[in-house]
């Protein structure tokens, strides 16, 4: 677990959590696509992951989920359906902003929400978030 950090008044903690989930979702998508690409290119997935782990592509997502993704171990720490909720909340805040409020366009978060929604539609909403690779596998006919 992380440490408690005061982020501001009401709603700031929730907004911090949503921002975290947007980053985690993007990292899971990148790792999913990287692993599928590596395997389709004939690379050893573990060796590839060990190689990129120490560079700019290295992340906590690789540390926590990389091996599980290779092994197709989708036991949940957090459910994929919760990523749909969290990323959706971020997109809804952006789309529902008042005229005088700052808004942002988040195409990556929108795509992430769609891909996690595909997991739910495939009946995999109660799998762990690392199961996102299953969607990328399906798209690639695997």
From TrEMBL:
InterPro entries: 6-PGluconate_DH-like_C_sf, 6PGD_dom2, HIBADH-like_NADP-bd. GO terms for molecular function: NAD binding. Signal peptide: none annotated. Gene3D superfamilies: N-(1-d-carboxylethyl)-l-norvaline Dehydrogenase, domain 2. Residues 11-135 form the 3-hydroxyisobutyrate dehydrogenase-like NAD-binding domain. It holds the Pfam family NAD_binding_11. PANTHER family: 3-HYDROXYISOBUTYRATE DEHYDROGENASE-LIKE 1, MITOCHONDRIAL-RELATED, 3-HYDROXYISOBUTYRATE DEHYDROGENASE-LIKE 2, MITOCHONDRIAL-RELATED. This is 3-hydroxyisobutyrate dehydrogenase-like NAD-binding domain-containing protein. It comes from Trapa incisa.
């Amino acid at each position: 677990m992380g440490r408690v950090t005061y982020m501001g008044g009401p709603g700031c903690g929730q907004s911090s959590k949503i921002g975290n989930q947007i980053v985690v979702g993007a990292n899971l998508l990148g790792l999913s696509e990287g692993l599928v690409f590596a395997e389709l290119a004939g690379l050893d997935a573990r060796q590839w992951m060990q190689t990129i782990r120490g560079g700019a592509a290295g992340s906590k997502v690789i540390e926590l989920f990389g091996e599980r993704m290779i092994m197709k171990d989708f036991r949940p720490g957090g459910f994929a359906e919760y990523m749909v909720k969290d990323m959706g909340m971020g997109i809804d805040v952006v789309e529902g902003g008042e005229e005088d409020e700052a808004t942002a366009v988040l195409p990556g978060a929108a795509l992430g929400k769609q891909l996690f929604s595909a997991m739910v539609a495939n009946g995999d909403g109660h799998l762990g978030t690392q199961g996102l690779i299953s969607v990328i596998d399906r798209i690639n006919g695997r």
